[in-house]
Specification:
Chains A, B: This is Substrate-binding domain-containing protein. The structure is a homodimer. Chain A has helices spanning about 10-20, 20-30, 35-50, 75-90, 105-120, 130-140, 165-180, 195-210, 225-240, 250-265, 280-285, 300-315; strands at about 65-70, 95-100, 120-125, 145-150, 160-165, 185-190, 220, 245-250, 275-280, 290-295, 320-325, 330. By secondary structure, chain A is α/β, with parallel strands linked by helices. The longest helix of chain A is centred in the first third of the chain and has 17 residues, at about 75-90. Chain A starts with 10 loop residues before the first helix and ends in an 11-residue tail after the last strand.
Chain lengths: ~350, ~350
């Protein structure tokens, strides 16, 4: 990521080196589909290698910047990812530019405009819906993209993605509760359009099935990963005629909502109702009682995303377009055997 | 913050416009002290106005970037500041580059190197010790600096600083507990080298004095704003022969540590011991019970810092070098009248 490379690279030189015509290079630059895949790949690699920037962008030199874009900066989750990306960027002399697009198309357009103006070397998109239109625009900007915690929108594409073993995490949290003796285990799910939500729910169901515990749909409540939905869903589960003795929430924030639903009913977490979360945010250690949860390696996911996008920016190959880092159950004080309720 | 301004500005042109000699402009650029203050100010304003960059930096054009530097990205506090700065930067088409320097001089050197290479338009430093050496280097880079939540290190300088009314916040939290009937009120303090810590402690003492409650030094325990210190200090206070009926912690994170110290002793927050925090992080609403706390307008502090540094980058005057935004007591469920302990 040297910032001192002053040479200007022309389309002609790229065409010569790739052994293709100038119009072919233009077609690649314009994101047209009438280019053979291996030709496109060869040309894009050369464009990246030489740090080519389209005319109208501010400089042909590397910007030594990476864009990190979130839907919202409204979760402590975000700062964990930022820490990992910043760590790698800082050491490489690459600045990390933070943006939030608030799920709004006007805001996304403004961000794409800013991105083009500052000629970033790469983009890391976090838990964001990457529409085909935005993917096409990023391709035209010839900027490498890595997605962290992908939603279903990128599943069929070749965009590199970094996630966590969500299914295994859902499985191990549920197995932990089964081992403690729980048989009625509630589940508070995440938004169904996110792949990670579906994987956690399937892990929960797989553990129950393996233990021979029949599935009960009334024990599964929808949520949106935020605190309020955990409070509502937890309350609904606790108010069932035959309430669960343990509740597994698919995010730490929803688990804290369940805590409050438990407290409001004059009950105690662990003593009366076991609670498990998912994420292992720093807040999980600070909760009272400290929360048993499934650790996602968020900082490491950020680090890997940064290393991957910097390698792509230098025209390197990456081994696999999809990587899932391991989750790990962290047992603290919010889980115990079922009380005699 | 146009990124399209291509003209190069020479030292000679700046000297002519300022009505001074070329060596005088050089002295200003090199941060030398042998320049009259009003001359320095006039020259610096012109340098900023014309977007002058030192030779060796990568471009004479505006970078349309602002650097936001933290000591550590280890607190949900950080993401609130980031949200405010990003908000303003995004709308202005200015990228926000995040860094953490980890209180290490090697890391600070690396950051200064990166800052110079990317030719940022301005720097926002958060709760960081800004040593005279770093201040001098930033002055040499001719980049405007704004400090958020200043420590004692910038108190005597002309660096613009944005904080909150910490003394008033300490006062109003303590008055709230006094009004509920508490007379033995514990205090968990922040690090003594930070101005905000001292102001909160003085506000606590002022409220007690105004109510005629004698100060008891055994009720004041040191902390460092982090969770573990709140747990330790809260435990020490609760284990006194004559324990307090309420504890005011100078950060939300320390208040959550006090929660856990209360729980471990088989007691309940509010019912047995009232707890007040300081910050109003999102976590305060999610705590169980939701935390009574002093709200710092962290997002607004970030917004104001961004607006200020962008104005300085354009050579505008700012009205006041020090601004304190108002804190506000937010009463939730962690405080009640003293129990009959």
């Amino acid at each position: 990521m040297s910032g001192d490379d002053e040479r200007r690279v022309t389309i002609t030189a790229i065409a010569r080196e790739a052994g293709v015509s100038v119009p072919t290079v233009s077609r690649v630059l314009n994101g047209r589909s009438d280019v053979a895949p291996d030709t496109r790949e060869r040309v894009e690699k050369l464009l990246r290698h030489h740090g080519y920037r389209r005319r109208g962008s501010r400089t042909v030199r590397r910007a030594d910047l990476v864009d990190l874009v979130f839907n919202d900066l409204d979760s402590p989750w975000a700062v964990e990812i930022i820490r990992g990306v910043e760590d790698v960027g800082h050491a490489a002399g690459v600045g990390v530019v933070i943006s939030a697009v608030h799920r709004e198309s006007s805001s996304t357009r403004q961000w794409l405009h800013n991105l083009r103006a500052r000629a970033s070397d790469g983009v890391i998109v976090v838990t964001s819906h990457l529409s085909p239109a935005v993917q096409a625009q990023l391709r035209r900007l010839n900027v490498p993209v890595v997605v962290v915690d992908p939603d279903a929108g990128v599943a069929g594409t070749d965009v590199p993605a970094i996630g966590a073993t969500n299914w295994t995490g859902g499985l191990s949290a549920t197995e932990h509760l089964l081992t403690l003796g729980h048989r009625r285990i509630g589940f508070v799910a995440g938004p169904p359009h996110l792949l990670c939500s579906r994987a956690r729910l399937d892990g929960y169901r797989a553990a129950l099935a393996a233990a021979g515990v029949p599935a009960d749909d009334r024990l599964v409540h929808p949520g949106d990963f935020y605190h309020a939905s955990g409070y509502t869903a937890g309350g609904a589960l606790l108010d069932l005629d035959d309430p669960p003795t343990a509740i597994f929430a698919a995010s730490d924030q929803m688990a804290f909502g369940v805590y409050e639903a438990v407290r409001r009913r004059g009950l105690r977490v662990a003593d009366d109702v076991s609670v498990v979360g998912f994420d292992d945010l720093p807040e999980a250690r600070w909760a009272s009682p400290p929360l048993t949860t499934v650790r996602q390696p968020l900082v490491e996911m950020g680090r890997l995303a940064a290393r991957t996008v910097l390698r792509l920016a230098q025209g390197e190959e990456i081994e696999s377009p999809r990587i899932e880092l391991a989750t790990e159950l962290v047992v603290r004080d919010s889980t115990a055997g079922p009380a005699g309720r």
